[in-house]
Amino acid sequence: MNLILTDLTTGVGKSITASGAGAVKDSRGPAWEVGEVLQGRVMGQRGAGSFILELEGREILARSPFLLSPGEVVSLQVQERQGSRYVVKLLSRAGLTTNDIPGEILARLGLKDTPLHRSLVQKFITHRLPLQLELLGQAKQALALLGREDEEGMEVVLQALKLGVLPRADVLKLLQEFMLGETDPEQAGMTRLVRFIPLLADLIDGLAGERGEETGLLYQELKELVASLVLQPEAGGVKVAEQLRNLLSSQLPAREGVSPFRSLPLNGLIEKLDGLLQALKNGMREKGQGGENSSQLLDTGKGIARQLAGHLLFQGCGGDNEFQSHLYFTLPLVRNNEVTTWGQLLIKKNGGGNNHVDRHNFNMSILVNTENLGSVLLDISVWQREVRVRGRVEKEWVGRLINESWPALQGAFARLGYHLHGYKWQPGIVPRRLLPWEMASGETGSWIGFLDKRV
């Protein structure tokens, strides 16, 4: 359990949120070492979720997901130092271990100490959501609508809570289909769509007359649109860059996010897919065609459309949302007209309070799984046009190959006005997926801050 710390003696508002907690220091600031245990006392509260601590004679502003009482003694251990940032862990509170904290929180909130309540409190702390009785009640209501109280169900509900769309059963179902589908990267919505389109050709050919011609045109439009979204390395760098722009745009909502009075987010891709599926259904019904296989194929298409719609919900691009801090994209790659390679891209938030990506200061992670090179993970950090890259490869020769081509890449970055530092890589096990929610936290281990929410 972590706190976000700011040294008030060096100026409030300079803190940079890291993966746990940050304390900014300057020439007068603290110089804590990794592993050091700090003893402090809670001096008082300043607003909801903010408290004043005294640490080593300094006044520290602490953002805490749980309640701290004036006079309490806390023990903090420095977990990691990242320049002027410190990741610290709450070890105890006046003899109270962190395992006891959920029970204490429930007692203060007047809730029964049940496994479900304890799990929710722990999830709220992990996701840095405010521990408010109303929000906990919304989460419980959403779990009932979803019909599941397991780990995966809680992750879906907490993401919906961050998006501010509770309680809505339709939203929960869409998010569930998206999040559970993405746990297997080969079943990601965009990858499934690319593989699905050719399967419709026989159904299109089975429709004759005017209805068949209309449906055929819809099919051709969707086929061409999907082809423009998929990355095709053989097309060359310029064409791939265009495909990448189209691909990322297709995974962002074209309209504002959802609210109780607003329809679900859509974009041109989902609208064309829905239109084609409905035209096929109507055409087969009029001709008395179709069978079990055709119905299953249309059901598969509807499932893909729901998964893609859930992805748009997850992006949470509508409005100023302080909780949703991720942009997540899937990257299907085609070779010889087949999806043999896929990847994932996370664009990450750099600094607090900003909901846009500054072209001079941003972070991202890229995971690509290939047939010949194995899996490759790149973590990229850009700060004031200084670009640093760390990565992981399955095969050492792939790392050496990247190093050999690095000078040419540095020249390309220099022409764009960026300074690309050397490439730091290590061989080993590369995670099979990069997912920006808690279920994947044990796999990714990515080293760059928070994720960003708007491109």
From TrEMBL:
The source's domain of life comes to: Bacteria
Q: What is this protein called?
A: Flagellar hook-length control protein FliK
Q: What is the lineage of its organism?
A: Bacteria, Bacillati, Bacillota, Clostridia, Neomoorellales
